[in-house]
Design brief:
The protein has 3 domains: 167 residues, Thiamin diphosphate (ThDP)-binding fold, Pyr/PP domains (Rossmann fold); 166 residues, TPP-binding domain (Rossmann fold, 3-Layer(aba) Sandwich); 171 residues, Rossmann fold (3-Layer(aba) Sandwich), CATH 3.40.50. It is 38% helix and 16% strand. The protein has 23 helices and 18 strands. The protein has a 6-stranded parallel β-sheet, with helices on both faces.
Length: 571
């Protein structure tokens, strides 16, 4: 009796099987021949394929989906220019701790350059692993179809475990098409999670309980750990003011009486003063980079103790800032442990400190003159007021508009969430990230604030927004300059030859060419009406706001300044 033939399994099937195991229902791609076999295998399993207009469009859409879900998502691009075009997205995911699996096509193994001293052997061949190694948690090149199941499982696990980040899987075309000889067991084992040191936790609790001028700095690590509730209980129980990093905004409600907004280079002076004069600063899940602390690291909380909680041992071992006590662990677990310990310790008297912080907050409240030309702050505060109480996802590009949004919009994660590029600071993050946010959250309002410079990096993704029928509300803050760099040049050299007085097209007309309803606003009294029409119109819309071209970000923390003495604008 003849035996029943078994179905031949290809390398691409092992990849698609991993997608199913990890709950991947959509791939974010820009296609090419070297990656096509995996598309075929994924479609046969009912997995949706979203095709962006550029590799950055695919990468940032996947990145937004990953940040909002907290689980690894998949971006796929072809070899050569596909790889080089998505490098920026990979770097963004790495610096901002986003769990992302990036699958790149590669030429066949027989056409790869290997160690030969030639520039290229295969068409559209680049050394993907060498390009990606410094900006990934791991970059993997399987060389046999039988290695694929374990390699893809490893990629998903590494991307999501510990401090999240991107993993790149570079798969040669012949490995995707090759036959899997047999089922190979997956051998990857996740490393053990660090156990917080109980003795250090006790010391931290003693320091916090005895502090007369305490401050908490909440970073994105709070959001990654889902530790917002623990943070809020600890802060409110002890009455401790909370400042937040740019990426940490929403870890603590920014409209809370204890909230200081965010601190650092373009943050709030009240937050900087509180940190500078604190006797204990509890830093939770924040890398304390240059944009947070300024250049005068020896003056950071110089009269106080710095306590740090982080899941990444390297952030504690190689801290830019003096660390008096550091504990390695998950923010949610550590804050829970501190909460338990603090419950048994009396509160120090901090009423004088709270009064001082409130006085700083009143003295340094962010103000602007609403007369004359339209101010960007007015546009943002109007949108914030109009959406109060709503679930909203706010996406920004990078530049002055990003900082104004961080200052003037209220965040309370996950109900009011911010998506922006932090450590990499990449213009063009905006539209494609709004695509990913809207595709995965069709019932939530998505507002994309974008500057005229950042918008033009990935403006082609307007086509994806229309094609997918995504109700993204785009607000363009057009000041005809690359504002934040222009301001830097003017402060230092009194001229901005590369960034100022930029010619811009009519963005409302461009939106209409894509089939997107659009409005142009030049006066403060017209802002609310235009935003109301935009928000009430089904589908995508764009409001082109012609804002004051000389409005600066004030105050600003410049080189050589301590956090207590930010630049307050031109004399």
């Amino acid at each position: 009796m003849a035996s029943t033939p078994t179905q031949t399994r290809l390398g691409a099937d092992a990849v698609a099987d991993a997608f199913e195991r990890h709950g991947i229902t959509r791939l974010y791609v820009f296609p090419g021949g070297t990656i096509a076999p995996i598309f075929v295998a994924a479609l046969s399993r009912g997995i949706e394929i979203f095709t962006a207009r550029h590799e950055q469009g695919a990468g940032y859409s996947a990145l937004a989906a990953a940040r909002l879900s907290g689980t690894p998502q998949v971006a796929m691009v072809t070899s050569g220019p596909g790889v080089t075009n998505i490098v920026t997205c990979v770097a963004d995911a790495y610096f901002d701790s986003t769990p992302l699996v990036v699958i790149t096509g590669q030429v066949g193994t027989g056409d790869m350059r290997g160690t030969l001293p030639v520039r290229q052997r295969g068409f559209q061949e680049v050394d993907t692993l060498a390009l990606m190694a410094p900006i990934t948690k791991e970059a993997i090149l399987p060389r046999h179809p039988d290695e694929l199941a374990d390699a893809v499982e490893r990629a998903f696990r590494i991307a999501g475990e510990g401090r999240p980040g991107p993993v790149v899987l570079d798969i040669p075309a012949d490995i995707q098409r090759g036959t899997i000889s047999e089922d190979h067991p997956m051998t990857y084992r996740a490393p053990a999670r660090p156990e917080p040191d109980a003795g250090v936790l006790d010391e931290m609790a003693d320091a916090i309980a005895g502090a007369q001028r305490p401050v908490i700095i909440a970073g994105q690590g709070v959001l990654l750990a889902g530790a917002q509730a623990e943070l809020r209980r600890l802060a409110t129980a002890r009455g401790i003011p909370v400042s937040q990093s740019l990426l940490g905004l929403g870890a603590f409600p920014t409209d809370h009486e204890l909230a200081l907004g965010y601190h650092g280079h373009t943050g709030n002076q009240a937050a900087g003063l509180a940190i500078h004069h604190a006797d204990v600063v509890l830093v939770v899940g924040s890398r304390l980079d240059l944009r947070q602390t300024g250049s005068e690291v020896n003056s950071f909380a110089e009269g106080g103790r710095v306590l740090r909680v982080d899941l990444d041992s390297a952030e504690l071992d190689y801290s830019r800032i003096r660390t008096d006590l550091g504990v390695l662990g998950d923010a949610r677990e550590v804050l829970g442990e501190l909460e338990t310990r603090l419950a048994a310790r009396p509160n120090a008297e901090i009423s004088a400190w709270r009064a001082q912080v409130d006085a700083w907050r009143d003295e340094h409240a962010l103000r602007w003159d609403n007369g004359g030309l339209l101010k960007p702050q007015h546009v943002i505060t109007t949108a914030n007021r109009m959406t109060a109480g709503e679930d909203v996802i706010v996406v920004t590009g990078v530049g002055s508009h990003q900082q104004w949004v961080a200052r003037h919009f209220d965040f309370d994660h996950p109900r009011r969430a911010l998506l922006t590029s932090g450590g990499h600071g990449a213009m063009g993050y905006d539209l494609p990230s709004a695509v990913g946010a809207a595709m995965n959250n069709p019932d939530r309002r998505v507002i994309c604030f974008v500057g005229d410079g950042s918008l033009q990096i990935n403006i082609q993704e307007l086509a994806a927004i229309v094609e997918q029928k995504l109700a993204v509300k785009i607000v363009v803050l057009d000041n005809h300059r690359l504002g934040i760099v222009s301001q830097f040049q003017l402060i230092n050299w009194e001229d901005d030859p590369t960034c100022g007085k930029k010619w811009n097209p009519d963005f409302a007309a461009i939106a209409r060419a894509y089939g997107i309803p659009a409005w142009t606003v030049e006066a403060a009294e017209d802002v609310e009406g235009a935003l109301r029409e935009s928000f009430d119109t089904p589908g995508p819309t764009l409001v082109h706001c012609l804002v004051d071209p000389v409005e600066d970000i004030v105050p600003m923390l410049l080189a050589g300044q301590t956090m207590a003495a930010m630049w307050s604008g031109p004399e």
